[in-house]
Structure formats: structure tokens, C-alpha cells
Fold these 3 entries.
Entry 1:
Amino acid sequence: MIQSSLDLFDPHPQRLARHTLLLPGFALPELEALLDALRPVLRAAPFRHMHTPGGLRMAVALTNCGALGWVSDENGYRYTPIDPVSAKPWPALPPLLVDLATRAAAQAGFDGFVADACLVNHYLPGTRLSLHQDRDEQDYGQPIVSISLGLPAIFLFGGLQRSERPRHIPLSHGDVLVWGGEDRLRFHGVLPIKPGVHPRMGERRINLTLRKAG
Ligand code: MD3
Ligand code: FE
């Protein structure tokens, strides 16, 4: 019947693990407003390639908005209130993003999540993000909300030990992922982005992660 085929376009949330929820297409209704909010952020704080403490140039280009921004250099990984490139505070976190993250987190059972930092990652075809944990935030009790835009990606969803073989999770334009609780410190990464052109976003993938860093 017609109703059931229409349901294919309104996919259900998928629980990937006990405290990890994939919300397919959750950002799509607000996509243009989200891009409008992102434009001045990227103008004030353009994407840049940071270096690992070991001196390696990261394949992913990144920037931040919010009270705190994640940086990596020869001195290590940390959150800072000042953008080292502009020597000014990071651009403000657009309220639309904070609100979207609060609503997504609530769907996953994390009530009252208020992000103070948004790390924005930029991937070209071929760019990958190797397996890592996010451990630079103050309170691991706070969830992280991720918004995927543009070219699709295969997300690597690992375990609490690096040695655990990660699951491969496809992420599409507009998908939102929430993880917290016992899943907060899982190893994760992104396989090399396949060549392609996204009709709205062009030849790139952008991922926003909303965090309570401080
Ligand atoms: C599930 N970003 O910025 S976001 C990062 O797509 C980062 O750019 C990736 O890892 C990206 O630190 C992945 C989705 C994600 C991130 C971490 C997780 C999902 C997660 C940790 C545990 C479980
Ligand atoms: Fe991460």
C-alpha cells in the first residue's frame, strides 16, 4: 500500500548501540538555514589543516565555532577559547545548531544537552579519519551530536579497545548521530570518502560535531 512505500522516505531512528542513536535525515528540514548559519562561521574561521603533536599534517581540514574550539599542534590536543589563526575568539555557535543538537540528544534520552563547542570537519574525496577516541572534553557524561553533510561516508564504529574490529555504518547528507553514556569513549573513524559530487554540497563532506567541551 502507498503509505508503507512513503514510510521509506521517513526512516526511523536506529539504535546502533545502547547509547548511540542514528537519526537519518534529521537535519534535512533545516538544511538551508543551517548552511546560512555556517557561511559566516567559515568566513571568520576558515578551514585549516592542523598538525598532530607528532608533526603529521591532518588529512581532514577543520575549524570551530562556540566558546571553545578544538586545536592540535606540537603541544598536543586541547580546547581553546581563541582561534590561533585569527587570534580572536571562535565565531559564536549559531543558536539553530545548539537547538538542533539539544533536540537530537533528547531523542536519544540525553535531556538538557547544551553544546558549547562545534568542531567542523571538511573532507575531500580520498580523505579519511583514522580510528581515535574523543577524550579532550571535561565531562564524558555529556553526549556528542554529529551532523553529516554532503558526500556519503562509511563511519567506523569501534569498541572501547582499539583492537575491537569496527562496524561499518553508512552516513548520508542530513543524518544526525548521537552518542553518549557507555558509548562515549568508543573508538571511531571515517573510511576514505569515495569520489563524487553531492548535488547541494559539491565535492566534499562536512561533519559538524556538537559538544559540551568545558
Ligand atoms: C560514535 N568526526 O570530529 S562524527 C571527530 O565524521 C570525529 O567527521 C567524525 O570523529 C566525522 O572527532 C565522526 C560521528 C561520531 C564520532 C565519534 C563517535 C560517532 C561516534 C564516538 C563513539 C561512537
Ligand atoms: Fe572523533
Note: Residues 15-211 form a domain with the Jelly Rolls fold (CATH 2.60.120.590).
Entry 2:
Amino acid sequence: MFKPLLRHTGTAALCAALLAISCSALAADLKSGLKIAFIPKQINNPYEVIADDGGMAAIKEFGGVGKVVGPSDAGASSQVQYINTLITQRQDAIVIAANDANAVVPYLKKAMGQGIKVVTFDSDTAPEGRQLFVNQANAEGIGRGQVQLVSKLMGGEGEFAVLSATPNATNQNTWIKWMQEELKKPEYAKIKLVKIAYGNDDDQKSFVETQGLLQAYPNLKAIVAPTTVGIAAAARYISSSSSKGKVVVTGLGTPNQMRAFVKNGTVKAFQLWDPNQLGYLAAYAAAALSSGKISGKEGESFDAGKLGKRTIGQQGEIILGPPTTFDATNIDNFNF
Ligand code: RAM
């Protein structure tokens, strides 16, 4: 019955397109009109903007109502007022990149107490603060991978510093812990982590911290910034200083922010995942929870649109996939 109807409309192409759009929502069998709000670490961080855009694209795909609200700084409690407002607005789900593992927990618990589903993504809370955590990649793999990369770039010896985000950022702190674990291996005996500095995911502060590191540690051979804000600021500082070509800059960055520094030789290699896919996956996870398709238990699976079927791991964690290493040979293949 359906096919002839399509032929008669004379707008078969349009219908096919509409069908394709609603297909993933139908396949996932999600409730329609779900109200899902994203709270990034900070509203103006380019990485978070890409992630939020991915979330909004997914929500559009399954016919929900999405929005992004959040603070302009990554302070520990800066997200609390936004959570409270979303509770009042009776959202179906809150998807949050937490600025602190504990500060937001009482408020997220209040939300869950009122039937609002809570999904963390990018940066987790303590497990009691959420039902699911959508992680960009395995945290141990990210941390160990950063040390493996910087060691290679430093030729296996010398002093390096970490330029992190805020001192309370769950994601960076977990990665740094794994970096320190990796450094215990005998092959890194000649490498020394001399300082962990914090740029607070603020461009200017990260820039100034970079300058401070170079002054305080004249023998510094590398800076590892496991934050897209930090690595871009460090590269900008070093690219116009006498340290260019002497001090390695690496870490986690977006290809679009780092392209110029790879082209001008300041940065040889760095890593990241696709933030857009991270937000997209988090939105599908929130919708599956809100539609009663999953409850958050280990082993449950759900349909994540173009990312296919995804399964919940231990402690409610869902992993997007391994990071990519970008360098001069491949950076132009990426546009985010
Ligand atoms: C910054 C933020 C974010 C982190 C990336 C790598 O944009 O700190 O949380 O995942 O860097």
C-alpha cells in the first residue's frame, strides 16, 4: 500500500528523505517530544560547542526538543543555577559535562528524584550523581596514550609539564592520574613531570600559565595540555616565542584550532576524538533512558542512531571509541 502512495504524491524524493530522518527515531523506538537540555562545562568553549551541536542534531533526528544552557566559566559550582532552572522547567533529561565531581551531585539527585533522567558526558560526577556517563574514550587509554606520545616527541628524555583545565575537572584529573601511572614504567626513567599547572579552561589564563612554566623551568622540553583550550593557548604562546622548535606542545586539541600550529611547525602531533559524536551519543543515551528503553544497568544496549547499537559498561559508562592522533599527514582530513 505504501509504495503506490509514494508514487502518486509526485514528491517521492521528499517523502523518502522524511522517512530517512524519522527512521532512526523509529528504529530506536523513542518517545516523541522529549525535552532534553545540555549543560556544557562552559558555553563558549569551542570543544563544548561542537559536542552540544552533536547533541542537538541527535535530538532533532528523534523528534525531541533540545536546548543548551550553561555558565561562561568552568568553576566548580557554576552549573548549579542551570540545573535548578531545568528542574523547574520539568525537562525529561539533563545531559551535563560536570565541572566538579561532587558540587553538582545534590542538585542532580534532586532532578532524578523528580523523574528527570541525568546523563553525564565528557566529565563525570560521582556515580550517585547520574544514571549514565558517556565517556569519550577509555580514561586509562587516554592518560597512558598522552605519555606515550609526549615521550616519543621528546626523544624519551627531559622535563615536561602538564597544563590542565581546572583543578577540579573530573576528566582531566583522571587522565593525569593515568599519566602518572604510565610514567612509573622503566622506559620513562629519563622523563620527569616537573609541574601540573591549571589554566582553568580559560584562554588567557592558559596563555599566562604557559609563559610561567617556561620561565620557571628553563630546561622544559615539553608541555602536555589535555584540554583543547590549554593546548591552543600554549601553542599560540610558543609559536611566537623563542621556545618554538625547542619546546614540544602536545595534548588534546581540535584539528581546526590546532591546524595553523601544525602547519607552522609549533605542534607535531596531538590527539582527540570527535566531540560531535560524543554529544550525539549522549543525547541518544538520554532519550533511551527517558523512553524506558534502558535503566542504566551494565549490559543493556540501545540504538544510538548513526552510531549504531551501544552497550552500557561497568558503573553506567558508555564509551564512544578510541582517540585519533593528528599530525601534518592527516590533519586536513578532519574538520572540527
Ligand atoms: C576541553 C575541556 C573538555 C575536554 C577537552 C579535551 O575542551 O576541558 O572537558 O574533554 O578539553
Note: The first helix runs from residue 2 to 9.
Entry 3:
Amino acid sequence: MIPPTTAPHRLSFHIAWISLAFGSFLVLALVLCASWMAREIDTAALNEQKSAIATNVASMGQRIQLEQSTAADRTDGVFYSMHGRFAWVPNGLAQWISQQFNHDRVYVYYLDGSVLQASSHGRQANGAILSSDRQAVALLSTQVAYNLSAPTVGGQRLSAGSFGFRRLEDGSLAFISVRPLDAFASTAGFSGNPLLLASVVLLNEQAMNPISQRFGIPGIRTVGASLSSATVALNDELGRPLAYIQWSPPAPAAKLFQQVALPGIMSIVLVGGCIFGLLAWLRRTSLSLESSQTHASFLSLHDALTGAANRILFEQSLREALHYQTLAESKVLLISVDLDRFKEVNDTFGHAAGDELLREVGRRLLVELPEEATLARLGGDEFAVVQPGIVSDGHARWICQRLLQALSDPFVLSTGIMSITVSMGFAVEPPSAISPEELARRADVALYHSKKAGRNRCTLYEPVMDADRKDRLTLEVDLRNALMQDELHLAYQPIFSASGGTIVGAEALCRWQHPVRGLISPEFFIGLAEETGIIDELGLWVLRRACVLAKEIGLPWIAVNVSPVQLNRAGLAEQILKILHEIGFEADRLEIEITEGVLLQCSTQVQDTLSKLRAAGVRIAIDDFGAGYASISYLRNYKIDKIKIDRAFIKSLNDDPSLMLIVRAMIDMGKAMGLSVTAEGVEDDAQRRALTAMGCTHLQGFLLSRPLLPDRLVQLLAEPGYVPSDRIVANSLS
Ligand code: C2E
Ligand code: MG
Ligand code: MG
């Protein structure tokens, strides 16, 4: 009956998984995005590097040509005769160019191949073109010669020089620029053997260094084949790649990404984990709050012991059932359930056992009832059931019978096995015809009838029951009036000594002479007095009356019945002793008769009252002994003086041998415990003889005397056959 909590747990489990998947997806997307951006940035940087290096390489040729021109212009001593070959070239021109402009090799030579000056790496060289340069220089020289022989524009040639990247004989790569050295060679009409200037700049590591430094790109080198995207082609004049400039692109963004990726991911995961943990904690907290709220609202509408609905929910369910049923044809059933003698269970086996029993009763009822029914515990041992959709009275009775049946099997509790009976009252009505309160009242009236009719049954409400109830209410008022107006009186049934046949005392029995109804039996009105609380006043009235009479007529002792309801009231012993004191009646001439059930209660209040009375000298007798559950231990614990064997045992004493044995056992037990034993309801002489033979100490019954009015008792006591015995001593067997 505790509200379920598994669904939210399952939900939060799903949410956790979804959050985890979403978080992972987010992290992955971030990583991919950052990696893509890094690649894009690096690609853009690479393209810029390519274009810068390509531009730089392209400008190399122009630079070398410019440097050659600068050097040629400086050679103002170069003279070339139109009429013959005369040349004067300053000494060390080749060496100066090589040193000044870092050209690896410089040649000043004639087209026919005769070398005028040669310099290699800034030093004077012997007068020949290096074999490795020879073919490349020759080819470019031929091109220059061809340019010189080509038609001029406006009598002048803008540039007769030729240059380009070349693979040299020794396999090295170089930029070679060849140009005519003398000014006249470019003029129109020139022919002959022109003086040429050739510069060879090797594209080696040294040549690449300035580029590396300029662009901050380390490791720029030339390679034969392009194996990387970071390359720029060096083409010959026909556009064919001769070689490539290659470098390792720094890829700063990728590097940065690699450096920050792991810590970044870890940070994101950490932060994500923290957020997730926080959310999980918040969720858990809100769930536990929700669950405690659900639990609290469950408890506010349910009985904590059985889990059944409480009165609030019960009334709500009843109202709802009546409201919704007005739309349908069927009726609403209300059952009032009450456990018979539950108090005795509590008193005998303790409250823990009582609680366990109530829990089990609730469980069994719930198992039997359909879902649309509401089971409620309205208090103590009271349960109620509301069930809509009932088609007939028979249908309702069938449901009640099933519930009775379900509770009839013994209950296995931790204290032992226990059987109980249950009383039920039920009312079935079409909803349009009745209010919730009236339906509940009718079920209660029917329950009362079940109890009255002997318990362990279910009773359907009938209108005539209301008349009974009204009648009872009227009687209650009448009884209160009777007590005040002296309509009650006492009859006294003498109690005889079994051995001598003499009157030893009498039992006071209350009578009610109703002005309209006539004589009413105490079996009826004592119960009514107990239910309504009148018994407290009534009981003390009887005691006072009986003791007064006993004193007046000199009766050895008087027995007065004391109800269990009275015994449970605080101050009873003091009230009784006060009455005895007021009328001057000795306490040891009073005997109070209590029932076995009182002993079973184990109530400290009862114990206290009985011990106070006994201490004052009042004797205690167990009335109707054998009809209840008292055991020897109870008799011993309570210090009883007398047992009165229930008349049910005496009635068939001579017809049933087993009863004879039982009664004998009771008498023997009483004797063994030092108790007086009275047999009630002795109606014939055979019973009297048998009981006397078995050792019974006192006899009471119609055979010896019916209950008598005081006058008759006085007469009887005066008759010669009835001699009052001496006052018996407590616990004596005489
Ligand atoms: P009880 O205390 O066991 O009283 C004995 C009952 O047995 C009396 O019934 C008596 O008339 C009846 N009786 C005695 N001898 C015979 C017999 O030989 N045959 C049969 N059939 N009956 C016999 P009564 O007066 O109707 O009282 C019934 C019960 O009402 C009493 O049973 C007692 O428990 C209760 N009662 C009567 N007066 C009072 C009272 O003042 N206070 C209380 N608390 N209970 C009372
Ligand atoms: Mg009695
Ligand atoms: Mg009795």
C-alpha cells in the first residue's frame, strides 16, 4: 500500500543515458569542429606560404638580372668596336659580381666560348666555364645570340638576355642568367661574337636560407618529386617541372589544436561531469522530495497500520461512488465490519499481536475485494467497505459472505495461531435515493444487529431495525428514569451449604419492573446499562441496597455482581469501601462476582481495584466459571476466593459423563487451590447429590430456591428448615 517509486527511478535512468549520449555527441562535435577549423586555418596559411615562396622564387630571376645589369652599367670601360674586336673589360668584374651579389659562379666570355673572366664563389677561377655549367650556359648563350639576331623594335632591343632554372651536369639545380655585356650588342645591325655575362646561382640550402628566414619557415629545400602539399614547382622555360621547393608547413593551428585538444576535452568532460552530477543531485533531491510528498499525502489519506483508506478517504470514496452511480443503474454497497471480541485478543496477547492481526485482516479483505471497492479502517477493529456497481441484495450478500469466509481461516501470527470471528452489517441502495451519511448509518445499524444476534455473521439493513434502535434508545431513557424513580428492585437467590443444606448467603440479582413492558430480564438491561455507561450508577445502587438488606436481615454474606465495565473505572474500590463504611457493613460479608473475561484483560486498573478490595476483606468470586477462557494461572495471579461453576455444565451433568469428569476436575482444582466452589443452576436432586458427592462447597439453583423478594427471603430464613450457617471464613472449604 506504500506508493510506488520505481517509475521515476526508471525515468531518471533514461534521462541519465540521454544526457550522457547528448554530452558525448556535443564533445565530439566540438572536437570535430575545432579540428576542421584548425585544418582550414593551416591550409590558408600554407596557400599564403606557397604564394609567397613562388613570388620570391620568381623575383629571383629578376633580381639576378637586375644585379647583372647594375654590374654591366658599371663596366664603363667595356668598349666594343664596330669595326673590329676590341674589348676592354675591367679586371675582376666576374669576381666583383660574384662577391657583391653572391652569385655562385660568374663568367665573362664570348659567344664562341672563349672565357675572359671566371669567378667561383667570389674567388678568381681559371679561365674556363665549369664543366657542370657548360651545357646550360651554352644553351642560354645560344638563346642570347638568337635574341641578338632577331629583328629590333625601333632599332633597339629591350632585352636580349636569357635566364631560367636549369639542372646542371653534376645534378645540382641552379638559376642561370646570361646577357650581353656590351651595349652595342643590343643595337640593331650588330653581328659578330658578342661578349656575354653569365651568372649561375645554385639553388642549394644556402640559397634557400634567406627565404626560410624571411618567411620564418624552417627546412625549405629542393626536391626532385612533389610528395607533399607544401611544395612550389620550379619549371623550365617550357613549363615542365624541373624540381620542387619543399618545406614542412608549421601548421600552427593543428599544433595548437593538438596541444589544447586533450586538456580541452578533459575540461569539458570534467565540467560536463560536474554539471551532470549537479543535475543528478538536483533530480535525486527533487525525486526524494516528491516521494516524501507522495508518501505524506498517502499517509494523510491512509491508515498507517493496515494501509487501508482512512476516514477522510473513505468518506470521499463513498461520496464519489454515490455521485457516479447516479449515472448508472446499479447500487452502492456499504459494509461495516467489526472484529468480535478484539479487545480480548489485545488484552490476552498484547497490542503487538492485535496490530499484526489487524494488518492481516486488512490484507485478506483487500485480496478479496475488487479494484473498484475501497477498504477503510475507521478506528480500532472497525473496517468499512464501499463498493459501487452492485446489481442486487443477493450480490451484496455474496460479497459479504466471501469476506466472512476469507477471515474464517486461522491467522498465523508471530505469537501463535489465532481464530477470530467477524460481524458485518451492510446496506445496499440506489445512489439517487440516499445520502452518504444515511447509507453509513444503515450499515452500522445492521452491524449492531449482527452483534446482537450472536456475532460472526453479516446482516442486511432493513427498515424495521430502525424501530428496534429507536426502541433501544427509548429504553435507555427509561432505564435512567427507572434508576432515579426507584423502578428497579433486587431479588435475592439464597446460596446453600452443600453439606448441611443451610443458607450461607445470597446473590443479589437486579430486576426492572417497567411500567409498560412489565418485568425486563437483567440479561437485556444490564447489557444496555453497560453500553450506555448507566452501569456505574446502577452497580453501586445494587451494592448499597443489597448490603443494607443483608445487614438488616442478618444474612451472613451477600454476593453482588460487578460488571467488567465498572471494574475498568478508576476509583471503584474506594467507592465500594465508602458505601460499606457509610452503612456500617463489614467488608468480609461482601462477595463480588466478576466474570472470567475481566481476568483476561490483565489490566492494571482491574488488578489494583481487586487487590484493594481483597485487602479490605471483600471476597472475589469468579462467576460463570468455565464459560470463558480463564486458566489456573489467572486464578493464582488474582488471588480469587471462589469459583462459581457455570450452570451450562450443571444442566446436563447427569446426561453427559464427560461433563461429570469436567465438573469433577473443576471442583478438584478449586479444592487444590484452596477455593470455595459453588455450583450454579442446580435444578434437580440428582445434580445436587452428584455435586455434593464430588465435593462442591455451595449450591445455588431453582431446586433449592428461586431468586426471592426480600420479604420472602426473610420468611425463608425464619423457616425451621433453613438455618443460616455461621459466617464462613474466606477460603474455607466447610
Ligand atoms: P448470574 O450472576 O450468573 O446469576 C445467576 C442467574 O442464574 C440468575 O439469572 C438466576 O435467576 C439464574 N438462575 C439461578 N438458578 C437457576 C436455575 O436453577 N436454573 C436457571 N435456569 N437459572 C437459574 P438472572 O437473574 O436473570 O441474571 C442473569 C445475569 O444478569 C446474572 O447472571 C448476572 O450476570 C446479571 N445480573 C443480574 N443482576 C445484576 C446486577 O445487579 N449487576 C450486574 N452487573 N449483573 C447482574
Ligand atoms: Mg452472579
Ligand atoms: Mg452465574
Note: The longest strand covers residues 503-514.
